[in-house]
Amino acid sequence: MFLRPAAVAVAALLTVAACGGSDDAGNGDSTSGGTDQVTIGLIPIVDVAPIYLGQEQGFFADRDIELTVELAQGGAAIVPSVMSGNAQFGFSNVVSMMVAASGGLPVRLVGPGVRSTGEQGADFNGVAVPGDSPIRTAADLEGRTVGVNTLNNICSVSINESVRKAGGDPSQLNYVELPPPDMPAALDTGQIEATCMSEPFLSGYLARGGRTVASNYVDVAPEADIAVYFTSAELLESDPDLVERFTEALAESHAYAQEHPDETRAIVTTYTSLTAEQVAGVTLPQFPTEFNRESLERIAELAEEDGLLKEPVDLDQLLPAG
Fold first, then answer.
1. What is the band of 177 on the pLDDT scale with cuts at 50, 70, 90?
2. 255 and 183 within one domain
């Protein structure tokens, strides 16, 4: 069955936003030297490696930004931090952004996060099962317990589409929330029967006998934008210069990560517990510098079909102008 606490979650986020006045949701603090102290909410997965590379390469410092990272389990947990002003920017999957926007939260996208490779069986995310599982295709997920890092996000929306394409009924899936590092063990112990698993955990699980039964992100759209970086409408209005500098540094970081895959893999060891040997076989996502709007439109359609959106998403308002 679908678990749909989206309305409750959005109501809670609206309360947070309402409680955060202009004193709480302002700009990043500036030091006496003119450097903005900026907090960004991230998830400890491969997707955010360009941020750490950008810090290391000085792309943010070159634009008078000093980043402090706050880690969370999923994008839905990062939204209230940005809305309250505790963080100026955040990383989230696109569905969590759409759910927030459709619920009236003034979130604004500032740059793409990661994009699917577009290759079946060779993406940075997949629906993983144990090697001896009777689940052979996405249609076999009917009636199964499936792990996701956050309920009602890109994982469930994309897996539902994989199930539909395989001829199954996605309403028969039972989603449960688990931190990404716990997913392999949860599969091994039978706590869950399948899971939406991303790198750096996916390649390690496959190496020890696991399988994927669907490339769920690929099933959504060719080279789909899966995650994004965002801010609040208030910050965008009150300090557009900071947002512009952050966006420029982000784009430079993404371009660098795309061109230096070995460095991208290596830096993952600095913010996860993985070793260099473990990340060597990691499949990297694409790190785009521009949005794939067509894929976002398709994801919005699927999220609406799954009943996650209170109102249709206005992408013109959500996306940067121009």
1. very high
2. no
- Phi then psi for 315, rounded to 5 degrees? -65, -30
* Number of domains composing the chain: 2
| Local confidence band at 30 (pLDDT 50, 70, 90 cut-offs) | low
Whole-number Å distance between alpha carbons of 62 and 178? 38
Burial class for 217, CB neighbours closer than 10 Å (0-12, 13-18, 19+):
buried
CA quadruple 83, 88, 93, 98: dihedral, nearest 10: 40
For 193-227, write each residue's pLDDT tens digit.
999 999 988 999 999 999 999 999 999 998 999 99
Identify the pLDDT of residue 224. 97
Both 235 and 288 in a single domain? yes
Residue 66 lies in a domain: yes
What count of other Cβ atoms lies within 10 Å of the Cβ of residue 278? 18
Q: How much is the average pLDDT of 100-105? A: 94
pTM of the model: 0.86
Residues 6+ apart with CB under 8 A from 214: 126, 127, 137, 138, 159, 162, 166
Single out the residue in 179, 204, 220 at which a domain terminates: 220
Indicate if 28 and 77 belong to the same structural domain: yes
**Structural domain contains residue 1:** no
Report pLDDT digits (tens) over 217-275: 999 998 999 999 999 999 999 999 999 999 999 999 999 999 999 999 999 999 988 89
Q: What is the mean pLDDT of the chain?
A: 90
